[in-house]
Fold this protein.
Amino acid sequence: MSAEEQLNLDASDETGIAPKLGLWDAISIIIGIVVGTAIFKSPTFVFQNVSGPVQAVGVWLLGAILSLIGALCYAELATTYPKSGGDYHYLTRAYGRPMGFLFGWAQLVAILTGSIGAMAYAFADYGVRLWGLQAGATCTLAVGAIVALSAVNLLGVVAGKVVQNILSVVKVLGLLGIVLAGLFGATQSTAPSVEPQSLPDWGLAMVFVLYAYGGWNDAAFVAADVRNRRRNIPLALFLGIGIVSVIYILVILAFLFVLGFDGARNTHTPATDVLEAVLGPWGGKWISLLVMISALGAINGLILTGSRIHASLGADHSLFSWLGRWNSDRAAPIASLVAQAAIAVGLVLAVGSSIGRATIDGMLGIVGLDGLPWDKYYGGFETLVAGTAPVFWGFFLLTGMSLFILRRRDPGRQRPFTVPWYPLPPIVFCCMCLYMLYKALAYAEGLALLGLVPLAIGIPLYGISQYAGRARRSKPEHG
């Protein structure tokens, strides 16, 4: 048996389903998830926290380098342990079943479903503006986006990847349109010089940059679905991040060329300003449409990859065994997709609507706690994202550290890809995660409980799941 055949066997053991994703499919997933809405919002905060245009471009370049360093670590992990669910398996193998359970649980109830809800809400928010709908339609559109794209993925991985490829191509073309508009369609803005609201904070600028690059690691969740993974997983990570990095830097250069550094740091809608300078009022409409397409691409990518984590959780733990059911014909974890959609919709209704927020604040008041600062973090879902970010970066750090543990624990295991210049890249990656964990905690403050409380609830749930598993195994079989 060849090495690649053995890898495919290892990956298919848990589902019995042959891989169906090619190289471009994996790249498309990375582009789709990474290029969400951050590139349209984060640049302003980056410009406001650097001292000049050279440093502005430099932090985006550094973000690309750090992401590529992280990709080296994930390329080794994903090709060595090519299981559906990615980080779930690395954490389980390195730290034990409880850690894997907590990771899967946190992703299911807050982190990943929260990200799906956040992207859906961004899609709906821009849809309301573009189509002139009443504000009350926002939740309806957000729920509709989640339900529709979940339904597409219920049809199977092939349907999901086709939609992902189309959305990724359209969003890349749209961003290149912004670049062309900036390079050929306008001259630099004459916006007056403005004083920054605070002293430049290079570290905070990096937080926004790395947030914009976030999501590339989700490709590891579908490692078992990728054909010829020894070659395609590393290539997808490097090419996906490379394409995103080039596009991001070109977009930043376009902002600087059209608006100037002072103008770019004095607007919260740089992409809109660039296209309106070239196309007039229609520019704003095109940007709204592009943001909506970008959000849909991120939603679909998160739905496709995230469902694999929940299915892996169900395959290993009795309490969630129903999540581990796959449809072999469609190569899709049906129950996982349905549960993920239901929780994401629930978060939209609870966090994205005024009634939902008031209900949450009322429940907090019953136990003597203050309501959440919904407006402080740029809106309801940004509040949820900020609150769960410390847990996300904590697990990201543990995944980076797992590379050291698994190299020592499995010295004889075949590693189709090994991190070059080891141990320097994983050390740099872990330091980045540690810094981001510190910044996420400082930014969220007491809001970090939004992520820590669900994580804590997972501890007794793990005990219940273990008890249920032992009871099931000890039950005598009849017949």
Remarks:
- The radius of gyration is 22 Å.
- The chain has one domain: 3-353.
